[in-house]
């Protein structure tokens, strides 16, 4: 349980980010540290002025998937930004922005939601990942 | 089932989906003295396995668990 869970988030749709948040919170609840590395469209979703918006769903969701997601939301499911905030409060969760992706999106640290703890490159992420699994979402 | 269980804290996670029942319980456990008793109610179908695994991993004691009418009830003694 001591090895960190390391998540590289690439996709920026609400369904994948929700799944990532569940993985993160579950690990945090078990006392497992989590390192999150935000790339590309996942990083874009963490922009201060975009984090609260609808980020859509992966194509495989289709029309039916949209209905299921909306039903769950209406039933009071907590959105991924808040699940991540809870996870951070509960355990050791570090969320870093990929510096390459910052360049790609032409944004600075001030453009990001406070959920993001900093900016790093792949080297720091790998070193902090230790012997833990690295998952790409 | 013990005749009387003195519950220190209740977590009503009914209607909450994964991971919130565990997250809420972990938050509650963190605030309690060792040996406290938490009663959790949940409707999430994964709860039964989740709470068993969580207790095994964290060292809290799953004293009692039951399911009735789609509601799972767990009694957890904190370590």
Rg of chain B, please? 11 Å
Mean residue pLDDT of chain A? 96
Largest sheet of chain A: 5 strands, parallel
Number of helices of chain B: 2
Shape of chain A: globular
The rounded distance between the terminal residues' Cα atoms of chain B is: 20 Å
Please give a structural write-up.
The complex is a heterodimer of chains A (137) and B (79). Chain A is of the alpha/beta class and 137 residues long. Chain A contains six helices and five strands. Chain A has helices at residues 14-29, 40-45, 62-74, 80-90, 99-105, 122-129; strands at residues 5-9, 34-38, 93-98, 118-120, 134-136. In chain A, strands 4-3-2-1-5 form a five-stranded parallel sheet. The two termini of chain A are 21 Å apart. Chain B is of the alpha+beta class. Helix content of chain B is 29%, strand content 33%. A four-stranded mixed sheet of chain B has the order 1-2-4-3, covered by helices on one side. In chain B, strand 3 (61-68) and strand 4 (71-77) form a beta hairpin. The chains are: A alpha/beta (137), B alpha+beta (79). At the A-B interface, helix 1 and helix 4 of A face helix 1 and helix 2 of B.
List keywords for this structure.
heterodimer; A: 137 residues; alpha/beta; five-stranded parallel beta sheet; 6 helices; 45% helix; B: 79 residues; alpha+beta; four-stranded mixed beta sheet; 2 helices; globular
Topology:
The complex is a heterodimer of chains A (137) and B (79).
Chain A (H helix, E strand, L loop, with lengths): L4 E5 L4 H16 L4 E5 L1 H6 L16 H13 L5 H11 L2 E6 H7 L12 E3 L1 H8 L4 E3 L1
Parallel strand pairs in A: 1-2, 1-5, 2-3, 3-4
Chain B lengths: L8 E5 L6 H11 L6 E6 L4 H12 L2 E8 L2 E7 L2
Parallel strand pairs in B: 1-2
Antiparallel strand pairs in B: 2-4, 3-4
Concise account of the structure shown:
The complex is a heterodimer of chains A (137) and B (79). Chain A is of the alpha/beta class.
